[in-house]
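Notes for week 9. Today we move from apo structures to complexes. The key idea is that a small molecule is not decoration. When we ask for a structure prediction with 2-oxoglutaric acid present, the ligand SMILES becomes part of the input, just like the chain. The input block below holds both the sequence and the ligand string. Read it once before you look at the output, and try to guess where the molecule might sit.
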Amino acid sequence: MMKNKVHFASSEMEVGSGGFGGGGRWWPCGTMEAAAASNRFHFAAVAAVTGGGGATRLLPAVPRQYLSYIRMEGSMEDVRSTLLVQELAGMRSKAVPRQYIVQQEDQPTIAATASVPIVDLGRLSQPDGDANEAVKLRQVMESWGLFMVTNHGIEDALMDNVMNVSREFFQQHLGEKQKYTNLIDGKHFQLEGYGNDQVKSDTQILDWLDRLYLKVDPADERNLSVWPKHPESFRDVLDEFLIKCDGVKNSLLPSMAKLLKLDEDYFVRQFSDRPTTIARFNYYPQCPRPDLVYGMKPHSDATILTILMVDNDVGGLQVLKDGVWYDVPTKPHTLLINLGDHMEMGDGGILDVVTTMVASFSEPRLCGVAIMSNGIFKSSVHRVMTNPEKERISVVLFYFMNLEKEIEPALELIDERHPARYKRVKIMDYLAGLFEHFLQGTRVIDTVKI
Ligand SMILES: O=C(O)CCC(=O)C(=O)O
Ligand SMILES: [Fe+2]
């Protein structure tokens, strides 16, 4: 049985076989599954506890200035074996374990409201293009790196189905979901499957979400043993959605190429020959402390391009532009497009770096497309806030080129006045370099800059 020992400044909470044990009787466990692991958490903020007489009292929150004294014990594997976030949320505690609390200076701040650009894909893809939409697209590629897409050709019913099967998957009994676990032998993390964050260091701050990762392309490399069998329609619905999203990607790429006065199929060509696509289903349970915890910390995606479908009603996604965080509004049945970022610091190995943690926001964001565009296009830095009342789901498709391929600035964009700003780089090598540079505190982007 795994034992975690995590010290917090305040109360102590033990997850035992019958609920939370310890001195008094703690909140009963939200689920039987939660009780299965014998993990001990000491909670940092407010914990609800019932004393001998059964009366509930609230323990005071730990003043923020003490949070830095909190430390964590246990091996990495132990820490990794902490409960899934869905189980933690099911306990209905008012506290969150220390591993989820971000440093005071990084804690969520109020976001501004601005209109995140909306691009009408139908108009953009008309044979002659639409000048207005193209202007908007240029603005987003050069600054926001994230935009909403309407008129994308994917039926509302299909989008609803994708959301429904995702929700049904996460709402299942833990035992059913664990059939697709991302832990080999219960402890070794692999990218694919169901679970939560990989823990690489005892100071790592965890995100308040669980997810299901599936490599969907190349199709002959699918590991169907981690593809859910329930709900029964899951696989068919996902397959249909993948085909449609591929169409969205392929109608967007020529417009991006045209903006740079490149051959229309320039970017499409880059995705030929066994590109890699990953589908990720993110499940953010209700969180008692949205002021201390992120659903997903600020990051940029280590992809060329990401298609994102977010919850119809529950917001939380924010994007950084010119140093200011903006709420991305919910607008049912729109898609979001993110320009990814092969070119920043990461916290993982090869495909672990699907998302790269952002160490510094002051640098302009670059992405695979940015290298090909010789630095004209930027990627987005974004984050997800938690919600105290509502769960939230998002479905994300991460598009990579063939990882064996090399990328370089398009030759057509280079002349005497516009020299190449980046060297040719193999994507796989670049992703591998991300982790090493992250550990050394250096920037892998510097190795490809000319
Ligand atoms: O859930 C969201 O809105 C964003 C998810 C995201 O950024 C990601 O999965 O990389
Ligand atoms: Fe992301």
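The CA atoms of residues 305 and 339 lie 5 Å apart.
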